[in-house]
């Protein structure tokens, strides 16, 4: 939208906006805008806290946060890989609309305004402390403290222990630490990220702030120092529900990923208990730093005026199927994420059954702070739901996700491209692999979750239907089964509707389209 057009819309009264098809601004008045704190974990699988039904108490602070606000059991990523999902959160757009479908294409992001544009326009101080992996650039925020999985922001001069820790992380090379990390928790990225966040919050003083605290964990490398290394002993971690045998019912992409992992880290699948133990320890390490950050908000009196959102960009195989990390198709273990909202004006409620998405974050926060939802935003505002107001339940009875770089899917008889994720770089190279490669991500695949059901369809006409309540690991495809015959047309219609609903309406030109208040299509 050009500036003159935007200024004109902002000057119109609500009745005129409604007549023009533009939803009126709702939420905070200019003098009472809340702070925004987005806490994101990278590759955190849903359902691994005691409050979400897991056997071990991995994240008591997050469970407490959820109990004081609203958590969603049916929250989903727009795509189970980092950059597309993160850009969706910031822009409210699905990957096929913002045009970033792989991690290497962040600069291609297409949108009108993102969260940080909206907040800066309203006078917010803005910041990133942690992993970016999006289109966001340093000049657009007041605080820029970036971290990756192997290194991060360092003060000048850099303390020797932090430099040594980062060298050790590179040596681990995205594998699983078989011994406790030989550096204290203060060298770990979550501690350093929260320290930077606390400094920023204090510097903001009385100005409203919008801060993205983005942990690189519990993403690989799977490592933790003591006491976290011993907190969930390997012999006590819950057994896997499915192992390597489950791959027999899956496509070529799954089995190829398994071979890629085994070639890179021979015997890794036999060490799954240690990997799971470290992963759970990483969750508790994150949780302790979340508690530290929330405690600082309380101590400074800013908690009462801050909206806190905790979520992940996508999930992790967590050694189910004999796999680590992520990398293929749209299984529940990769697409379902934790999402919890709490704080300013949010009404504590029991877990809501609504299907929600990372794309819903931007419109929700826009309504919370009284900002216009940007044109081209495809997500739906959760703000009425979070504040205990009426909302159409039919709007949230399904959700949509997608994956794939495009083109045709690779199969067992194909010659594979040179950049097919096999790692290497010469005989002396440290082994590694890229699970998000042109083989595992080949083709295009879309899915809808609705009720107990899930439909998946690909660009070459392949279909899958699962009852994810009875079959949570999606081992029995019911596409042609009599038991799914009644629900199949409804699922396909829902998928078609989502596909049309998320068709891009940018660029905005001479004519104004009718926009749905809150982004809700339900009548």
TrEMBL record:
It comes from the Bacteria. Keywords: Hydrolase, Transferase. SUPFAM superfamilies: Alkaline phosphatase-like. Residues 34-370 form the Sulfatase N-terminal domain. One of its GO terms (molecular function) is arylsulfatase activity. Gene3D superfamilies: Alkaline Phosphatase, subunit A. InterPro entries: Alkaline_phosphatase_core_sf, Sulfatase, Sulfatase_N. Pfam families: Sulfatase. Belongs to the sulfatase family. This is Sulfatase-like hydrolase/transferase. It comes from Paludibaculum fermentans.
